[in-house]
Amino acid sequence: MAISGLEITLRPYTITDVDDFLIYAGDEKVTRFTRWNTFTSKEEALSYINNFCIPHPHCRSICIGDRSIGFLFIKPQEGDDKCRADVGYALAAECWGQGITTRAVKMAISDGFREFPDLVRLQALVEVGNKASQRVLEKIGFNKEGILRKYTFNKGAVRDMVMFGLLSSDLKP
Ligand SMILES: CC(C)(COP(=O)(O)OP(=O)(O)OC[C@H]1O[C@@H](n2cnc3c(N)ncnc32)[C@H](O)[C@@H]1OP(=O)(O)O)[C@@H](O)C(=O)NCCC(=O)NCCS
Prior knowledge:
Elements: E1 8-12, H1 18-25, H2 28-31, H3 42-53, E2 59-64, E3 67-76, E4 84-91, H4 100-115, E5 121-127, H5 131-140, E6 143-154, E7 157-167
The chain binds coenzyme A.
The site of coenzyme A (COA) has 20 residues, from strand 4, helix 4 and helix 5.
């Protein structure tokens, strides 16, 4: 879907997003590098929206108009770790390659630093083979901080992960 010129917005999920959500969360091209197993039913998608997205402190639907084309979250840690938050995202494959995720994550970062005053660091862990996601983070200004070898299990194998970090002080005024 070519969407150049169309504005993207970020908003909380509602249960009416379920069919759109299933388009990307049910697509193996999208879930290959995510922690999701590929969603296979509307019920499963609805349960995830209800139990994860809606109660989440900052989970957003990336939208064109009111149509959900992607998923994004900023998850602040708690207690002594509340200075940092994890960032994650995924976009419907038909929309890839148009700069949408880069724009959406930039918007979410501004919102996140405003919304969570204790936050000074955003971080993202990306599989070594996930070059598109690494490029998104580099374009935004995240620093590639290192490779965590054999860090986590995903899709049947233990994966090396790249740690990316962005400090609030890295952002240009
Ligand atoms: C990662 C993802 C969100 C990127 O979304 P997107 O909207 O296409 O990203 P953007 O268009 O903003 O930027 C993608 C960049 O990666 C580059 N890219 C894409 N595939 C690439 C590859 N195989 N190797 C190197 N660069 C690649 C693009 O050229 C673009 O860079 P450019 O603007 O310098 O040309 C999307 O591919 C996706 O949903 N992937 C599956 C889920 C996922 O991996 N989530 C992140 C988990 S950490």
